[in-house]
Amino acid sequence: MSAFRRLLILFFALPLFIACGGGDKARYDTGPIMPVDEGVNSLQVWRDAGFEVLETPAGALPQIPAAQGGAGFEELAAADGWVTETEYHSDGSTEALPGGQIRVYISDYPATTRTEGKDTHNVNNSMFRRMQYETLLNIDSESLKFVPGLASHWKIVDHEDGSQSYFFRIDPDARWQTGHRVTSADVVATWKQRVDQGMLYPADELTYKEYSEPVIHSSYIVEVRTDKKSWRRFMTFAAVTWIYPDHLIGGLSGKDFLEQYQIRPLPGTGRYLLKERDLKPPNSLTYTRVANYWDKDNPKKAGQWNFARIKFITLNEETLIRERFKKGQLDMYLVTQSKYWMKELVPERVHQVAKGWIQKKQVYNKKANGMQGHFFNLRKPPFDDIRVRQAIAHLNDRETMIEKLFYNAYEPAHSIFPGMEFEYPGNPKITHDPEKARQLLAEAGWSERNDEGWLVKDGQVFEVEIMYDGSPSSERVHTVFQENWAEAGIKMNLKSTTWATMMQIMDSREYTCYYGAWSGSLYPDPQATWHSKYADRDNSNNFTGFRNAELDSLLEIYEVTDDIQERIGQLQQMDRILIESQVGALAWYGPNERIAHWNKFGMPEGVLNKTEDWRRLIRLWWYDADKHAELNEAIAADAEMDLPSLKKITYWLEH
C-alpha cells in the first residue's frame, strides 16, 4: 500500500460530512478504518476476570491409551465401528480476513448473559450461544450430514431391549477458553444442568430426561444411553446440545447457576467471548473474537467468524433503526417491511443508496420457513371452540394486506411448514370470508351484539388482548387485523410489549391469543411444541395447549424413522392435523431475505449459506478495509460505487 493511500485511509477514518440531495447536510459515520486483527488471547481475558486459567499443550493426555480415545485412536476407530467425516463443505470464503467490527441491532437487551435456563429461549440468546459454545457434532449446511465438532468420532449401538447408546470421542485438541481440556466430564455436567429443575426450563428438563446420565469411559470417550431408538434424540444430543465447562458448572445447582451467571459471562470453547466491561445495559453488548481458539487451524473453519468485534445495539423503534442505519451508525439492516424496501429505501429517496454506499441484497436460498400468525390458547374460552378459531382465520384479510401493504412480496401461509416439502398438499386454502366467519361465530353462540356493536355471549363481550412488539410495522398490520375483527363484532385490544414480557405471559399461559413468528428448521422437531405431554406444563413450548392422540402417535413414530422420505410423509400428516385443528390463523411467509448494508464488507458468493437465515451473516461476512477506504473516498467526493445498489442473489437456487 502506498504512503499516499495510507494517508487517505487515515484521513477518511474520520467522520464525514457531505451535501445530500436537497442541499441538507448529513453526517455519515462509517466508523474507523481497522487493521487485520485476530482477536484477543482468551487466557488473559479470563485471568483478568478472576477465572483460573491453564497452559496446556496440544494433543491428548499421554496417559490415555489409543483405544480409550488417546493418541493413535484414529488408526483403530473404524475397526471398532466409529465413524467420522473428513470431506464436507466449508461455508467460509478463502478471501476472508479477520478484523474489523460489525454493528447490528437487537430489539431487546437480553434479560441475562446466560445462554441456558430461564429467560434464554429466544433468537438473540440462541445467536449468542452459537458464538460462545459448541456442540459435540455439527451439521453440514449443504449435505446435512453430521460432521465433527467437539467430538472427532461417534457411533450408535442398538441394544436388544430397544434402547440405544451414543458414543462420542472428544477431540483431544479441544480446549476451553480458559485453557482447560474439554473432557467427558463436561458432557456429564451439561446433562446434569439440563435436567435440573432449578434451571426453570421444563422443556429442557423433559427433553434431557429422555437420556440416562452419561457414562464416562475415559477422559475422551463418553456414552449416552436412551431407552428407545430415535434419530431425533441422537441429533439433539449430538448437534443441539451446547456443552458447558464442568470445572465451572459441575458443582452448581441449577438455582445457583442462574444466580451466579445471571449477568456474569461464562467461558466457552467457541470463537467469541464476552467481557464484563463490554456489557452496557440496556444499550449494547459486544463480543470479541478469540485469537487462540482451539480449532483455528482447521481448514474447514477458515473464513468463518471473521469480525474482531460484533456489537449488538438495542433498538426497538423502527424509525430510529432506519435513521441510524442511514447515518452509518449501524452496519446492516434486515428490512422486514416490504413497503420500506420497495418504496422508501430506494435511489430516488435515499442518497446513500443512489450512490451505492448502501447496498441492498435480496437473497434467495433454501432456508427453512417458519410459521407466523395468531395462535390461540386452546385451554380456555373462547378459543377452546374450533369454530371460533376458524372464524378468526376467515376474518384476517391476508390477500389484501399482501397486495396493498406488502407489494406482493409475501405468500399466504397454509401450513406450519410453509413453502417446504413438509407441507401437506391437501391443506385447505383459507381465504378472507367475513360471511363464513359470522356463520361460524353464530354456531358457537356468538350471534348477539350489544349497543356498541360488540358480540356478547352469556353477558360477556368478545374482547381479546393481542400483544405485539410495538414497532410501527407491527402496529400497522395489527390495525388492519383490528378492523377485520371489529367488522364481525370482536374487540381487539392492542398491547405493545417487549419480547421478554410477552414470553413471561405466554410461559405462564395468562393469555387468550398472541401473534407470533417462529423460525423454521431443516430437521423439524414438533414434539416440544405440539405433543400433549407438554400441553399443561408452564414454561414449555406447547404454548397453545394443543392435544391430539393421532399427532402424539405420529410424533412417536417420527422419532424412530431413519428414512428421510418417510419422515417427510409423517410431517405432512402432522401438518394436516394441525391445520385441521386450526391451532392458529396463519399469516404469510417471505421467500427471501432482504438485507441492506454499508458497502465495506466482503461476503461469499451466495451471501448467506444454503440453508440458514440472515443471522448467519455475522459468521460468513468479513470486514474489508480497502473497501471501507473506497467507501469513504466515494462519500467525500460524492461519487458512485458498485451500482446498481440492489442485487438479487439467486446463487442457492442454481446450486
What does this structure look like?
- There is one protein chain.
- With about 650 residues, this protein is of the alpha+beta class.
- Helices cover about 30% and strands about 20% of the residues.
- Strands 3-12-11-10 form a 4-stranded mixed β-sheet, with helices on one face. A 4-stranded antiparallel β-sheet has the order 6-7-9-8, with helices on one face. Strands 13-25-14-28 form a 4-stranded mixed β-sheet.
- β8 and β9 form a beta hairpin.
Parts with pLDDT < 50 across at least 5 consecutive residues? 1-25
Largest sheet: 4 strands, mixed
* Helical percentage: 25-40%
**Average pLDDT score:** 92
The quaternary organization reads as single chain
Q: How many helix segments? A: 23
| Total count of strands | 28
Strand content: 15-25%
**Over all CA atoms, what is the radius of gyration?**
26 Å
Molecular shape: globular
Q: How far do the termini sit from each other?
A: 37 Å
Structural class estimated from helices and strands: alpha+beta
Strand order in the sheet with the most strands: 3-12-11-10
Summarize the topology.
Elements lengths: L2 H10 L3 E4 L5 E4 L13 H7 L24 H5 L23 E6 L16 H10 L4 E3 L6 E3 L2 E8 L5 E7 L13 H11 L7 H7 L6 E2 L4 E6 L4 H10 L5 H4 L4 H7 L11 E9 L3 E6 L19 E6 L3 H9 L5 E3 L3 H7 L6 H4 L3 E6 L7 E6 L9 H10 L2 H7 L6 E2 L21 H10 L4 E2 L5 E3 L2 E2 L1 E6 L3 H16 L3 E6 L2 H9 L5 E6 L8 H4 L18 H11 L4 H17 L3 E3 L1 E2 L3 E6 L2 E2 L14 H4 L1 E2 L1 H13 L8 E4 L1 H4 L1
Parallel strand pairs: 3-12, 14-28, 20-21
Antiparallel strand pairs: 1-2, 4-5, 6-7, 7-9, 8-9, 10-11, 11-12, 13-25, 14-25, 15-22, 15-23, 16-24, 17-18, 18-19, 26-27
Helix pairs in contact: 13-15, 19-20
